[in-house]
Amino acid sequence: MTGINIEFKFDIFDSMYNGIVAIDSQGIIILFNKAAAEMMGVNQEETIGRKVEEVIPTTGLLEVMRTGKKENNQKMLFGNRVVISNRSPIFKDGGIVGAVGIFQDISDFEALSHELGTVKEINHNLDAVIESVADGIVVANSSGIILRANGAYQRMTGIVEREFVGKHVRELLKQGYMNKSVTEMVVERRSRVNVVDIRNGKELLMTGTPLFNEAGEVVRVVTVIRDVTELTELKKKLKQAEVAKDRYLNELEHFRSQNSFKKIITKNLDMQKKIEMAFHVARVDSNVLILGESGVGKELIAQLIHRASHRSDKPFIKINCGAIPANLLESEMFGYEPGSFTGALREGKKGLFELADGGTLLLDEVGELPLEHQVKVLRAIQDKEILRVGGKKAISLDVRIIAATNRDLEEMVHNKTFREDLYYRLNVVPIVIPPLRKRKEDIIPMTIEFLAKFNTSYGYQKWIHPEVMESFLKYDWPGNVRELENTIERMVVTSKDDCITSDAITEIAALPCNSNKSELASLKSYLENEESRLLEEAYRTMGSTRKAAAMLKMSQSSLVKKMKKYGIEING
Fold first, then answer.
1. pTM value?
2. What is the spatial distance between Cα 359 and Cα 437, in angstroms, rounded to a whole number?
3. SS3 annotation, 72-87
4. What is the per-residue pLDDT across 278-332, written as a single tens digit (0 to 9) for each?
5. What domains does the chain contain, in order, with CATH numbers?
6. For residues 498 and 462, what is the distance between their CA atoms, to the nearest angstrom?
7. Residue 322 contacts residue 294 (beta carbons within 8 Å)
8. Positive or negative, the Cα torsion across 9, 11, 15, 18?
9. Closest CA to 81 of 104, 60, 61
């Protein structure tokens, strides 16, 4: 019976969850249950009768037996297991006969505790993020109860947390705390909702987003509130600024075109005929092609045509076809839609064709227009509509086209560098501006005008010696009016005396400054004048460029090129 009782007791020890180890007074293990063996990773049967320090090197049972004092809640490590040990001495007849240790595996509790700490840290960081953002944030459950709101929301609305947290949105609606319930809209639609509301005198954009559980049910609604009052005001001001900018641009172009009359100075009969022609064609909308060397004043003639037309109160827009990089030319001319390419403005941009709607568009240096862009310009002129970069809808335009160039477009057409159809589309009314060397009677009045202009600009009272004027008349001015104007300005600002003498000419190497140079310049001028006279006489006599070229024993293309060089008008 006693044996059965002892065996039954050992079965009880083996069935316990906690590990139990007992030793006698010699430190020999007399009890080692299954839980202890599993914790320490040893064979239970091999432990009985062995010294405890051989099985558990870190045991404290021997120390407890020596001191006779209990040791509770001592943390120990057995491999990857964390255990709590309670150790007590065994007394009998007033003496210590052994010791017993009870071990509890707390590894799961340790992991859970660490996980709980991590969750607390995440929640703390999340709270800090929610409170740090400038936008208001409100969280509600699927029933419509407000769970929390950050400080930004309270500042925007002027409502303190205790007034609405824990309340139903319908109750808040009745009490006038809000005008619209985004939460209920989100729960009903099960999707994001955007609503604009006015609260506390502010325009608020509220975006409600549903959060779903694994079953697909809405469990939370997060509403983000942004104060767009300032943004709306800025958009309004931006729109006003855009309107003002367009108005000022139109006024500026109008002012520039008005001033063009004052800038065209001439006593030359041929040049006066060109101006009369410009006034005449200004009354219609035909395309005009202005030809002439660089610096002769082609843009001024274009401005004159615009100012004298019924479009004078509309924009005058200039496109320098040679100054805009080829990769930007299309977007500058025709504009682009929002998001068409990297770096594009979010709202898109109008092109120069579109800005000229109702007015006049000058295609300056049209001979520099890349071949790949010529067909698009042709289509815009021909169809009177454009397509923005990235756009799908054509935009109709009412634009008067004037083109200008110092290039020989006929020769470019012959060499396949300029489209023939575009050339004929532009060349409806050609106006050839003669070079300054062909209208030298304009040099003195122009010089006087430019001198007065720069004296006024720089606060001088300088005047030009007649010798300088004589040199001006002998010079051929390859840069034409632009070169003359720049020369006058350079002399005004560099001359140390009020009288600008021939000494100032030495600063400009191209100008004749002594008799020898004057004779050379005069000879060149004389030869060119004679060549021009012969070409014009041959053309008038023979009646066509082909016959005139045959008489002069030169090619027709060379004849035409030289006639254009000297500003000789070709009829038909």
1. 0.49
2. 34
3. EEEEEEECCEEEEEEE
4. 999 999 999 999 999 999 999 999 999 999 999 988 999 999 998 888 888 888 8
5. 2-105 (3.30.450.20), 133-227 (3.30.450.20), 246-432 (3.40.50.300), 444-562 (1.10.8.60)
6. 4
7. no
8. positive
9. 104
